Amino acid sequence: MALPCADWTRRDWEALADRMLLAVRPHATPDHALIDLPGPESHSGRWSDRLEGFARTFLLAAFRLAQSGEQDPHNFAEWYAAGLAAGTDPGSPHRWPTFAEKNQAKVECASIALALHETRPWIWDRLDDATRQRVVDWMAPIIGAPVWDNNWRWFQAVTEAFLRSVGGPWEPADIELTVARTEAWYAGDGWYSDGELLPGQLRSFDYYCWWAMHFYPLWYCRISGTDADPALASRYRRRLTRFLQDAQHLVGADGAPLLQGRSQTYRFAMLAPFWAGAIFDATPLPPGRTRRLAGKVLCHFVDAGCLDESGLLPLGWHRAFPLMREPYSGPGSPYWASKGFAGLVLPADDPVWTDAAELLPIEEHDVALALPAPGWLVSGTAADGIVRIVQHGGDRARPDRPSIDDAGYARHGYATHAAPDVERAAPVDNHVALLAPDGRPSLRRPWQRLYLAGRVAVSRHRAHWLAGEEPQPYLWPEQGEYRTGPWLTTASVLRGAHEVRLAVVGAPEPGWPLRIGGWALAADLPPQVAMAGATSRAERPDGLSSTVIGLRGFTVTGCHRAEGRNALGRHSVTPWVATEGPARPGEVYAALVLLRGAGAQQEDVRSADMWSADVRIAVEATPGGATVVWPDGERDEVPLPIMP
């Protein structure tokens, strides 16, 4: 796979799909019903994980076969058809679990339904009547069954759409409820929250908006065919088009996606909405840009070693990274990356495969935008190809009680070229904290968004510390005990690679030092560090650097080192600045937080030294806030309401 990313053809995509599908075969049962991939089991158990291995790779096989079912040299259709027959046979030693036995089977059922729809001429239509009936019988109990009130509702709807299409049972009320709940989760500008943590509280913003909420609704309409509500399909197409206006800017110039949220091990599944846009005529992107973006993302992961020596996709990001696991993650979970191959349902003569590749916006110019729905500010810099977001919006934690921090949600910043250290109880990177006498940093979750406009975002949270032992890994907020401190109001002003991060502390008793951590810089070898004055810096040999400069109130500097905690490298270093003593109530503290590549630093020198003297950025306290004064004279007003 040495082709430049922009030159990947449909045939290259097919070859990679074949490689991935053939790699899992040695791990299948003799009848192909279950695929037992290596790795630790999920909380659903090995039986469920083995079904997951079948269902998610079957989805990949379906996309591979959708336009080439008559040319199937690896017999994918026959291989998976045998698995369907055995898995739905109640007397088989390798039968699939029922929904009553394993709730997770509802998720995998949707992948099987979607795959059967896309391969109908080559699999479903060639199954014998008894096998078809067993498939229907296995799926049918999802009708009226309880499902989680989030993206799971679409697993039920897609399955029932397929059942309806083959003359099986279905329940209109299930579809109506799914559509209604999806409306409740719509946050505007094409963005969905993945459910509500409290009624009316839309806070869960992550890749589930991409690979679930913009994927299944339109595929439901596709499966339902002419019986689908045309207005419903039009609504979902319109929202996807709007979403992709933003989403195209959240990929780095080298194809690296943001490393934010949960289920990150699905990797290039985040391509699902881009392909859906092309498939359903719901994209503002020219076809050549869609292909270039998708090819760059896939190439990014393949070149980084996401497939192991056996050709398997392990739990991780670039390579295996066990700390990325959630409790629901099993060895088959990463194969939801199959959604990243959805474009293969488009014929070979579709413009997405034949038009000339078009550059991504970040390959041509800087990008800056505010995303009010998730509460993010975005800055992409063409000089180094890095996309950064600052996060003052959503969070997958209930807003009515303190929680331990989650590296995927609670950091102040996320980027395409940096990953957070996996640390929940004592975070440093991209974190603003009060330091307890024992050195433990305060936690952030949950927080309240106060302001987001232009390039300024503000939020506040009640500083708190875990009072007992760290809770076990979780999906929803923990039930731990916490001791609380003062309110912390934090703000970000994002301009290019430069984030001015500000903090104001409410009345502290007895008072704690304040610390601001920069980006965690990860590499296979320890990055170099340097500290001078109010500046702390880490740099890799390739020129990627993380820097924090105290602008107001910070005089102490340092670098936090970690090993084995970061998805992008064995070693990570996070520069930080802190106050020498307790932070003073109502005082404005500020630091400059930078993540830059070698290209950006060269650009600094070429641009009349405007940014190389970063310390010339001034922060002035004002009544009720602060003013950031940039070296070129531009000013940003920042509201900083103080909580007692």
Describe this structure in words.
With 644 residues, the protein is α+β, with helices and mostly antiparallel strands. Helix content is 27%, strand content 21%. The chain has 15 helices and 22 strands. Strands 8-9-10-11-19-16-15-14 form an eight-stranded antiparallel sheet. Strands 7, 12, 13, 17 and 18 form a five-stranded antiparallel sheet that branches. A hairpin with a 2-residue loop joins strand 20 (618-622) and strand 21 (625-629). The chain is globular and about 75 Å long. It starts with 9 loop residues before the first helix and ends in a 5-residue tail after the last strand. Mean pLDDT is 92; it is low at 605-612.
**Broad structural category:** alpha+beta
Classify the beta-strand content into a percent band.
15-25%
Total count of strands: 22
**pLDDT average, as an integer?**
92
Low confidence ranges: 605-612
Distance between the termini: 58 Å
Helix amount = 25-40%
Spatial sequence of strands, sheet with the most strands: 8-9-10-11-19-16-15-14
The largest sheet is:
8 strands, antiparallel
Helix tally? 15
* Shape by Cα distribution: globular
Radius of gyration: 25 Å
